[in-house]
């Protein structure tokens, strides 16, 4: 029987959404402080307006249900699903006032891309964007990368009104520590430590290439946030190529790789369980997949004669594959080069890597390498069953934070996610091709949006069709929820409007 939302459910959901909207007002204080410190008075007024809108909106929503309430699993799905939309709405207010976007829709696109750590941008004249506006873009990526719900839970914004259902509704089915509050705080603390370390290293590297201290500090901060949270945005129009530094590229990709590791595996490392880490199915599958994909991509670039010297070929090839795998989306190969210099075979390899993505329970997007490993195990098990005698009974296991049985329910769930993602890729590609774009760039762009990668083959521009902007924003939102949450939420909403049947004087 399908569960329906009652009027009380809606009031409770609105109340908790109001808490998150109010939280976004607090997050806007970060760019406001930067604006005041850098004497960007115009930007400061924009964030004062944004904070006011978020506070008024959040406060009114919290009045929807003034009593204490504990979220059910169904309500948690709704809060998580709609939170990303509402945060994108409030987050776009100061961006729309900045003058760097052609319309509010473009600012909303930027906000959605930032919160979901996709990294695609419709900003105009990024090179002259204020420190405050850039800081806000990266603040949204920082919160979105770790998870809005994770941050809210770690700060205790929901009090004791929630359980693990709200945490799991954001696509995180594993607990680093049995206690949900300790788990969220571990994720935040780990991210803070890595972020500070990245800030220090990037600041030193930016100073080394000749940046003035203040600008070096902010670029170090933004690069650290975008790398570990696999956001992929940069503060300059040339992207990562602006720095012309091999050292910066190496640190960027190392942080992105670290961010794409399951937080549960991070917990195992912090506990000193080093050997089990390398035995994990995610790690093993990632090593095999990246080795094959990188070798094939470099070979495809070499065959196409894309680069004259071998060191540049290897450097660009490895960086591109790892950026696609981690969902960071940084590009050392420009959109123009992707469509004119890089062969279609090399593009297909990038597409496959973007589809898979990084680890489950990390900051990266895509189908996730864990699901690929589990489905691969199921294929091997199926072949063994075909070759085994009828009397034989096999027990298939895999190693992921301990030895686990390969249950039918797990395989079915992973297969469902796989099918949903592939369906989304196909529908988005059809929509893009319908507007006259070539097939290969359309496939590339569609996979990038659905998997929250942010790489672009040149289609994502301020003047692209309005319908495509909506399609891509929906993809970013649904991809961040990993589609299953969205489907479950959509079914609950639709069934709530379905009239109840009357049978023998009773209402069902």
UniProtKB/TrEMBL annotation:
<feature type="transmembrane region" description="Helical">
    <location>
        <begin position="413"/>
        <end position="437"/>
    </location>
</feature>
<feature type="transmembrane region" description="Helical">
    <location>
        <begin position="12"/>
        <end position="38"/>
    </location>
</feature>
<feature type="transmembrane region" description="Helical">
    <location>
        <begin position="246"/>
        <end position="267"/>
    </location>
</feature>
<feature type="transmembrane region" description="Helical">
    <location>
        <begin position="138"/>
        <end position="158"/>
    </location>
</feature>
<feature type="transmembrane region" description="Helical">
    <location>
        <begin position="186"/>
        <end position="210"/>
    </location>
</feature>
<keyword id="KW-0406">Ion transport</keyword>
<keyword id="KW-0472">Membrane</keyword>
<protein>
    <submittedName>
        <fullName>Trk-type K+ transport system, membrane component</fullName>
    </submittedName>
</protein>
<dbReference type="GO" id="GO:0008324">
    <property type="term" value="F:monoatomic cation transmembrane transporter activity"/>
</dbReference>
<keyword id="KW-1133">Transmembrane helix</keyword>
<dbReference type="Pfam" id="PF02386">
    <property type="entry name" value="TrkH"/>
</dbReference>
<feature type="transmembrane region" description="Helical">
    <location>
        <begin position="77"/>
        <end position="97"/>
    </location>
</feature>
<dbReference type="GO" id="GO:0005886">
    <property type="term" value="C:plasma membrane"/>
</dbReference>
<keyword id="KW-0813">Transport</keyword>
<dbReference type="InterPro" id="IPR003445">
    <property type="entry name" value="Cat_transpt"/>
</dbReference>
<dbReference type="GO" id="GO:0030001">
    <property type="term" value="P:metal ion transport"/>
</dbReference>
<keyword id="KW-0812">Transmembrane</keyword>
<feature type="transmembrane region" description="Helical">
    <location>
        <begin position="477"/>
        <end position="497"/>
    </location>
</feature>
<feature type="transmembrane region" description="Helical">
    <location>
        <begin position="340"/>
        <end position="361"/>
    </location>
</feature>
<comment type="similarity">
    <text>Belongs to the TrkH potassium transport family.</text>
</comment>
<feature type="transmembrane region" description="Helical">
    <location>
        <begin position="44"/>
        <end position="65"/>
    </location>
</feature>
<feature type="transmembrane region" description="Helical">
    <location>
        <begin position="287"/>
        <end position="310"/>
    </location>
</feature>
<keyword id="KW-1003">Cell membrane</keyword>
């Amino acid at each position: 029987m399908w569960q329906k939302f009652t009027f009380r459910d809606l009031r409770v959901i609105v109340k908790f959404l109001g808490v998150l909207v109010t939280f976004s007002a607090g997050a806007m204080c970060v760019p406001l402080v930067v604006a005041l410190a850098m004497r960007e008075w115009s930007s400061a007024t924009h964030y004062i307006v944004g904070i006011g809108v978020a506070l008024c909106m959040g406060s009114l929503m919290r009045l929807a249900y003034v009593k204490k309430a504990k979220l059910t699993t169904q309500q948690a799905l709704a809060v998580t699903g709609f939170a990303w939309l509402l945060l994108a709405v409030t987050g776009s207010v100061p961006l729309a006032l900045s003058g760097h976007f052609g319309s509010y829709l473009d600012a909303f696109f930027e906000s959605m891309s930032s919160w979901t750590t996709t990294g695609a941008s419709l900003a105009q004249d990024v090179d002259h964007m204020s420190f405050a506006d850039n800081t806000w873009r990266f603040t949204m990526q920082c919160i979105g990368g770790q998870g809005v719900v994770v941050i809210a839970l770690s700060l205790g914004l929901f009090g004791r009104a929630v359980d693990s259902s709200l945490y799991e509704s954001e696509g995180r089915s594993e607990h680093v520590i049995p206690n949900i509050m300790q788990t969220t705080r571990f994720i935040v603390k780990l991210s803070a430590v890595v972020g500070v370390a990245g800030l220090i290293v990037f600041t030193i590297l930016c100073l080394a290439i000749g940046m003035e201290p203040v600008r070096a500090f902010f670029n170090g901060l933004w690069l650290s946030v975008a790398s570990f949270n696999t956001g992929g945005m940069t503060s300059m129009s040339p992207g990562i190529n602006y720095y012309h530094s091999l050292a910066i590229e190496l640190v960027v990709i190392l942080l992105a790789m670290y961010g794409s590791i399951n937080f549960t595996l991070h917990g195992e490392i912090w506990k000193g369980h080093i050997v089990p880490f390398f035995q994990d199915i995610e790690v093993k599958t990632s090593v095999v997949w990246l080795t094959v994909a990188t070798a094939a991509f470099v070979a495809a670039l070499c065959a196409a004669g894309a680069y004259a010297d071998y060191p540049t070929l290897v450097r660009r090839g490895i960086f591109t594959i790892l950026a696609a795998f981690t969902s960071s989306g940084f590009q050392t190969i420009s959109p123009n080069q992707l469509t004119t210099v890089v062969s279609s075979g090399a593009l297909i390899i990038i597409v496959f890597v973007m589809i898979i993505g990084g680890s489950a329970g990390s900051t990266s997007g895509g189908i996730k390498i864990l699901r690929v490993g589990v489905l691969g195990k199921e294929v091997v098990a199926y072949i063994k069953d075909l070759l085994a005698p009828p009397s034989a009974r096999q027990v298939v296991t895999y190693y992921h934070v301990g030895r686990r049985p390969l249950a039918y329910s797990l395989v079915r769930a992973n297969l469902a996610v796989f099918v949903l993602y592939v369906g989304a890729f196909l529908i988005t590609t059809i929509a893009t091709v319908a507007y006259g774009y070539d097939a290969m760039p359309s496939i590339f762009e569609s996979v990038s949006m659905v998997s929250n990668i942010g790489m672009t083959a040149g289609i994502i521009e301020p003047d692209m069709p309005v319908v495509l902007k909506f399609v891509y924003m929906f993809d970013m939102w649904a991809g961040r929820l990993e589609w299953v949450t969205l489907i479950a939420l959509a079914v609950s909403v639709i069934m709530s409007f379905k009239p109840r049947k009357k049978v023998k004087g009773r209402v069902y």
